[in-house]
């Protein structure tokens, strides 16, 4: 498959991640005039002015998250639901939050149609985290924040990993890998990326 070749050539080499990505049909998550480009390694517009991320970036972030089969994962920024569907093949349990009700509803419908039963889609402001399910083994943020949101850091289990794009502008962002240790947090800068902003509050429909 053309997409898998692109993933490998961009450094996504983890067998479990490639396998999970092979099992998720990106074509289900892109609608309208862009659907025919679903198998290209490019970000594409979805509803509410948002984007489905570039597959190689999805792969790279998923790989950095080092998800194990017993992990409980929180994703902030459901968007199309594509990333959540991939995480669902790697983790025990996935909670994914979007601030746009329409995106959350559409994503829930597509994910359910795939037969996945370990993914819960929630419409809420993800910057507040999900206290009732915390702590999480892994947290993936797929919208760019100025800094990793405090409530999310607080909901990361000791030994847990969070991957989050950070940056003060739309154009200059870096992907950060945060590991919670016994006595604090380790920060590892990964690479430049470009994501839509993490915004507070619910989306205006
Ligand atoms: N992971 C998605 C792409 C994410 S696009 C996919 O696989 O398709 C970024 C998403 O973050 C958008 O849908 C946007 O609505 C959402 N978002 C931005 N700020 C948010 C917040 N505070 N809480 C929850 N979702 C947020």
UniProtKB/TrEMBL annotation:
It is an enzyme of class 2 (transferase). NCBIfam families: pimt (TIGR00080), PRK00312.1 (NF001453). Keywords: Cytoplasm, Methyltransferase, S-adenosyl-L-methionine, Transferase. It comes from the Bacteria. It catalyses: [protein]-L-isoaspartate + S-adenosyl-L-methionine = [protein]-L-isoaspartate alpha-methyl ester + S-adenosyl-L-homocysteine. The active site is at residue 53. GO terms for biological process: methylation; protein repair. It is found in: Cytoplasm. SUPFAM superfamilies: S-adenosyl-L-methionine-dependent methyltransferases (SSF53335). It holds the Pfam family PCMT. This is Protein-L-isoaspartate O-methyltransferase. It comes from Palleronia sediminis. GO terms for cellular component: cytoplasm. CDD domains: AdoMet_MTases. Catalyzes the methyl esterification of L-isoaspartyl residues in peptides and proteins that result from spontaneous decomposition of normal L-aspartyl and L-asparaginyl residues. It plays a role in the repair and/or degradation of damaged proteins. Its EC number is 2.1.1.77.
């Amino acid at each position: 498959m053309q997409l898998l070749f692109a993933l490998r050539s961009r450094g996504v080499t983890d067998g479990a991640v490639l396998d999970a990505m092979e099992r998720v049909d990106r074509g289900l998550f892109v609608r309208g005039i862009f659907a025919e480009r679903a198998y290209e390694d490019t970000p594409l517009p979805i509803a509410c002015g948002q984007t489905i991320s570039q597959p190689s970036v999805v792969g790279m972030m998923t790989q950095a998250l080092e998800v194990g089969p017993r992990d409980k994962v929180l994703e902030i920024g459901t968007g199309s639901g594509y990333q959540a569907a991939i995480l669902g093949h790697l983790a025990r349990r996935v909670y994914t939050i979007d601030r746009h009700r329409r995106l959350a509803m559409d994503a829930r419908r597509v994910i359910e149609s795939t037969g996945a039963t370990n993914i819960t889609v929630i419409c809420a402001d993800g910057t507040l985290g999900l206290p009732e399910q915390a702590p999480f083994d892994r947290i993936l943020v797929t919208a760019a924040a100025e800094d990793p949101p405090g409530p999310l850091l607080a909901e990361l289990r000791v030994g847990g990993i969070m991957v989050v794009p950070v940056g003060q502008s739309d154009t200059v962002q870096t992907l950060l890998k945060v590991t919670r240790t016994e006595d604090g947090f380790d920060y590892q800068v990964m690479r430049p990326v470009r994501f839509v902003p993490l915004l507070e509050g619910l989306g205006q429909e």
